[in-house]
Each structure stands twice: as C-alpha cells, then as structure tokens.
C-alpha cells in the first residue's frame, strides 16, 4: 500500500508468513491485516537496563480478537545461548512503554500473544554480549568525475536498522547510489567489538576502527572510503581482535554506473522535446494522442501488447500481488487461481496483467491506462520507467 504499508488478506484461520517482512501471523478466522515497519530510533529510549532490541519494530493494525499471535523475526544467534537470556516485546500502550513476555522463541522468530495492537517489537535482556547476524551496505557517491567515494555501513540484519540507514543516506546533502553487493556477513557481529575496513588497492579510509553497538542513536556510524584511481576495489571488513575477515566484496567499474540517473536524464530530455514543438506545429500534425501532461502522452494510447505486458511482468518483484489487489482491481482468489499452475513466476505476473487487460475497455486497454494505474510511489521504479519508455516510443518492442 502507500507509504510503505503492507496489507495481508487471508480468508480462513491459520498461520501465515509475510514474504516481505518475515512476520508470522496466527489468526482465528479470515481477516485483513495492515502493518508497516517502524524505526527503533523513536522507541529505543524506552529500553532500560540490559534490554536491547532483537529485531525490527512494527505498527500492526488488525482486530486483536482475531489476531491471536505474532512471530517477530530477529537477528540474534542462539547457537550457544545462556539460560539468562529473557525474550520479550516492547509494546507501546497509550503512548507508554510496556514490556510483555514472549510465548516462545526459535532460531529465527520470537512469538508473542496479542493483547492489543500498536507499535511492538522483539527485545532481549542479557548481561553478556550476544552475536548478531549482520549485513554490510555500500553506497557510492555519484556525480564525481575523477575520484570514487563510498559509505560503508555495518548493521545487524534488522529491517528497522536498515530502514534508518537508507533514510540517512537519502537525507544526505550528497547523492548516493546503493551498490548491489552480497550484504550478509560471513561471521557474527558482536557488540562492543571493533572492526576495520581495508581495501586493495589501498585507499583513504576513515575511521580506522568502528565499534559495533546496539545502542539506538540518531545518526548511524559508517566508514568512508575514498579512491583517486578507478576500480576495481576489493573491500574487506576485519574483526580487529581476531584479525578474521567478516565480509568482503569487489567493486568493479560496471558497478559504479548510475543507471538510474541516466534514465532520469533521458526522461527529462524526452519531456523537454515533447514540449518544444510550437503550438502551430502541433495543430498542423495529427497526433496519436489527444492530451499531454508533464511530457507524458496519456490518451488514445495504442492497445498494450503481449510483449509489453511481458516486459512489465519482468520488472515486477515480490510485491506483484499487493499491486494487483491495490491498484489493478483483482482479488486474492483470482491470484490464487493463477498460482495453481506450474508456470514460473514471470508467467504468473504476465497472466495477472493479462487478466487486468481483459477486464478494461473490453480488452483494448492501452499502455497509458496501465501507467495511470501503476504510477504509485510503492510500485517499483523499473515498472514505471518501462511504461514511460513504451508511451514515449522508446520501447524496443
């Protein structure tokens, strides 16, 4: 849904897992559950003594009489846990923090019986250092000509922490692009241990060491790596005490190309060209379109073809069912019928789009009509870009 909110619609009692967040819901009957990821930076101040967050915090909206339990994903490693570890949840009731006990826990989730619903997330109490499954996120500064600058973040594999990092990068005065590199750490991250970032060839890296902590802070710490020579660069994260490699990745020249920026430039150029024709010239030509808005032609667009639907299907990710329900007017039963077959995932997405086409304008739905339905903030940019290219005649099909 909009603003990062998710919606899960179930038709019968049972236990259901969200493939996006890892949340597991147990319900007593069919129900609609709405939920979204929150930041610990707002609620971390309520963790006193030896309490620490163990996984992401969520805001869940559902009838608590139907939603029996929630299992929250956590990033803790419990392979050698001690009996002194206490698992609970921080539950905000009437804007006041309440620590409530968990029902049970596993290697991946902490289960909680629903009492009422509001911001709630898993926490753990222990007097020892706990290992966390970690991730490393790399961002490259764009718009640089002769040098290369990167931000390298170290964090627990926790969606709330990752969300905070992404928000911090977006709010920076400099523009960054995320590098598509395997994020998972090869070894556990331990609180209060120090880590250093090395590179080959050697670059200018600050700070020298970084101490991993679970304390909630307003600004996230990161390494800055600067190179004057072009890639490739091999980056390695080292645990200072043991000198063991925790994570490594090679950044190649192709990784540093800002494809998103190039697409934006092409769209801006197309818009400029589309508005540069004088009114007299426009009246003298017979256009395929009746109207233009912001440089995008929106009416009397040719019927969307199978090839174009397939192109859009390939751009869709795991959110395709939410898109179908929220913006294309399809329901869960129809999507379940599509999934029954043995076809691979892209074909399922294609058949979903084809079903929408059949129901719009007696099967004569146009590209512009599909673009209008899918021009939403929570629809992948790749989908919208592909449709804009088709509308402006840049599709290869």
UniProtKB/TrEMBL annotation:
Looking at the record, the residues that make up the FIIND domain are 1-265
May I have one GO cellular component term? cytosol
Region (Disordered) residue spans: 258-298
Q: Where in the cell is it found?
A: Cytoplasm, Cytosol
Q: Origin, by domain of life?
A: Eukaryota
- Show where the Death domain sits: 328-390
What keywords are annotated for this sequence in UniProt? Answer: Cytoplasm
Please name the Gene3D superfamilies in this protein's record: Death Domain, Fas
SUPFAM superfamilies reported for this sequence: DEATH domain
Bias (Basic and acidic residues) occurs at 282-298
Which InterPro entries does UniProt cross-reference here? DEATH-like_dom_sf, Death_dom, FIIND_dom, THO_THOC1
Q: Which GO terms describe its biological process?
A: mRNA export from nucleus; signal transduction
* Pfam families linked: Death, FIIND, UPA-FIIND
Q: Mind telling me what this protein is named?
A: FIIND domain-containing protein
